[in-house]
Amino acid sequence: MQWLPAVGPAGENLVGPPADPRLAAWWRGPSVMDAVDAFAPAARNVARPLRLPVAEVGKGARGGTAVSGCVISSGGSIFLAIQRVKFVSFSIRLL
Q1: Whole-prediction pTM value?
Q2: How far is it, in rounded angstroms, from Cα 13 to Cα 27?
Q3: H-state helical runs in 2-62
Q4: Per-residue pLDDT, 83
Q5: Most Cβ neighbours (<10 Å): which of 17, 49, 57, 89?
Q6: 36-86 pLDDT, tens per residue?
Q7: Distance CA 68, CA 88 (A)
Q8: Maximum Cα–Cα distance for the chain, whole Å?
Q9: What is the pLDDT of residue 70?
């Protein structure tokens, strides 16, 4: 958790150091953009099973259950090993 002073309407300390002398007199830390650029990505355990966020569950016309979700990936591959399912429909969007 990091505390950052920023003035949205005036644009102070958003993308660069503050120009207002009252803020510059006491703030020597990073701007909001510099702090966001310094974020480290969360460690992900890719050896674990994929957890698909379920967006909707519905009943089919023939008595089945339909579960839908979405996987968004920036690369790599996705392997789906689904058992006891008659029909699978999914969407994978690569960025």
Answers
A1: 0.46
A2: 9
A3: 21-24, 32-37
A4: 58
A5: 17
A6: 999 988 887 777 776 777 777 777 777 777 777 777 666 666 665 555 655
A7: 9
A8: 70
A9: 72
Spatial separation of the C-alpha atoms in residues 50 and 90, rounded to whole Å: 14
The owner of tokens 């008659």 is 86
For residue 66, what are the β-bridge partners?
A: 58
Please state, in angstroms and rounded to a whole number, the distance separating the CA atoms of residues 52 and 68: 9
Per-residue pLDDT at 74 = 63
* pLDDT at 87 exceeding the cut of 80: no
Task: With H, G, I as helix, E, B as strand and everything else as coil, classify residue 69.
Answer: strand
Question: Is 73:91 a contact under the CB 8 Å cutoff?
Answer: no
- Listed residue (36, 28, 37) closest to 5, CA to CA: 28
> How open is the CA angle 25-26-29, to the nearest 5 degrees?
115
Residues 54/68, Cβ–Cβ less than 8 Å? yes
Amino acid present at 30: P
Q: Distance (Å, rounded) from C-alpha 20 to C-alpha 29? A: 14
